[in-house]
Amino acid sequence: MSTRERSLNFIEEIIEEDLANGMNRESLRFRFPPEPNGYLHVGHASSICLNFGLGLRYNAPVNLRFDDTNPAKEEQEYVDAIKKDVEWLGYQWAEERYASDYFQQLYDWAVELIKKGLAYVDSQSSEEMAKQKGTPSQPGSESPYRNRSVEENLELFEQMKNGEFPEGTHVLRAKINMASSNMLMRDPIMYRILHKHHHRTGSDWKIYPMYDWAHGQSDYVESISHSLCTLEFLMHRELYDWFLDQIYDNKSMRPKQREFARRNLSHTVVSKRKLLQLVQEGHVTGWDDPRMSTISGMRRRGYTPMAIRNFADTIGIAKRTNLVDVSVLEFCVREDLNKTAPRVMAVLDPVKLVITNYPEGQEEWLDAENNPEDESAGFRKVPFSRELYIEREDFMEEANRKYFRLTLGKEVRLKNAYIIKGESVVKDADGNITEIHCTYDTDSRSGSGTEASLRKIKGTIHWVSIQHALEAEIRIYDRLFTHENPDGDKEIDFKSYLNPNSLDVIKGYLEPSLSEAKDGDRFQFQRLGYFCVDRDSTAEKIVFNKTVGLRDTWAKLESKE
């Protein structure tokens, strides 16, 4: 077995086997079929990467097809958001399609099934149908309307289509087998009456196809070769094939449904219904809240398309559902941003540092490297002056030998600037340090080449010139849920695990180069983490979101617990 063959996932192995058995490579065609009833989440991102990744691997077209068969829950807003997400991830679809494009064809095929005696109009209530469905171990019982004549069924179905009946009075069911061991084969519903406005077809239709009837047939119309879906649709495959059997003409590509396992992400939920609940109940600010597992939320938080694609590649495709720790996603984000994000200096918990032997009123503009991972990124100028902000945790009045940041009587280097020595502190009435006084070595400027500048100093800290500092709102995000699997116990409301400390808003001070930063721009705040500009920023106030820290702090916390 070659290295290439060993690297194939099981979906690719299926495709390779089909090609080996005579399928024309040019017949390969895939699709990503979202429902426009919410924003896409990280689980959808994996599916997008799978389908479009196969398209790239096999140079095959991939359709974006909206499964818009339920106007009660679908909106144009969701269609637009889904298209934006797919494009942002870096993929381009071959054709934009909609299940609603095929409403007439689906209706015509349903009429053909009625004429063949394979579909009938059922006039029972939903409760009555549920009772006669049976159980997995007991067969169902036939509907009293199952043996209506073809003529009566055709007439009733047309009246349903014309809007002559209220919702819930009739449905169209396939006539298959009420004793099947697969309960989905027990005369499944094909159409229901809905007097709802559709975002594309308006009020043209009063009946709408169910997913199982619309999906496989849409695949067939589009000549999809491999219809990939998640594992919960495994039991649907028999019905998928049964419906195709009724319309397949041996002249077109017959789609093949195959299933892969969901990859659930820890400390979040990946149900559109539950994500919508979080939005509607105000637990988050919207679908694109940076704490959400939606693609739009991850984009706003500062995640990169490549990081998400790398994450999808890392977790791969499997046949069993499992829970992926969110730290894997954060690692992929951190790894990508390390290569691309410019380095800047910011102080988020400031304490004032006064360099007592630096001339008052003097300022210097020092060279600072933009990204050591990218030589082409060049340098920028940062202002230096007598009074600076440093991080409060970067100073300790009394410290042991293992503490390499600023302390009294010892030296530390200011990043891109000078070597300083702690001399004294000023405290308020409560004993809190309000100022740190230090002296600097005038010949020790970084990059100057002097003997003093080349001295080996163990500690380096970042800083911001108070005179030049840009004040900003900083949003520090934590995981939305305290439990790794908030949706794991159906007896417990997932919202009971909401993290009350998932957002902390603080004031920070930034180097002035960030005054020109735009919405979505990403940076590494040196020694603090990765941050991006939020869309709430204005000319008067810039807002940054914390994307991810420089290291995984949750792993340490959880190991202690």
From TrEMBL:
Question: Which InterPro entries does the UniProt record give?
Answer: aa-tRNA-synth_I_CS (IPR001412), Gln-tRNA-synth (IPR004514), Gln/Glu-tRNA_Ligase (IPR050132), Gln_tRNA_ligase_bac (IPR022861), Glu/Gln-tRNA-synth (IPR000924), Glu/Gln-tRNA-synth_Ib_cat-dom (IPR020058), Glu/Gln-tRNA-synth_Ib_codon-bd (IPR020059), Rbsml_bL25/Gln-tRNA_synth_N (IPR020056)
**Region named Disordered:** 126-147
Gene that this polypeptide is encoded by: glnS
- The catalytic activity of this protein is classed by the Enzyme Commission as 6.1.1.18
Q: Which residues hold L-glutamine?
A: 67, 211
List the HAMAP family hit by this protein, alphabetically.
Answer: Gln_tRNA_synth
| Oligomer and partners | Monomer.
User: What does the UniProt entry say about where the protein is found?
Assistant: Cytoplasm
What is the protein's name according to its record?
Answer: Glutamine--tRNA ligase
* Organism listed in the record: Flavobacterium beibuense F44-8
The residue ranges of the Glutamyl/glutaminyl-tRNA synthetase class Ib anti-codon binding domain are 341-441
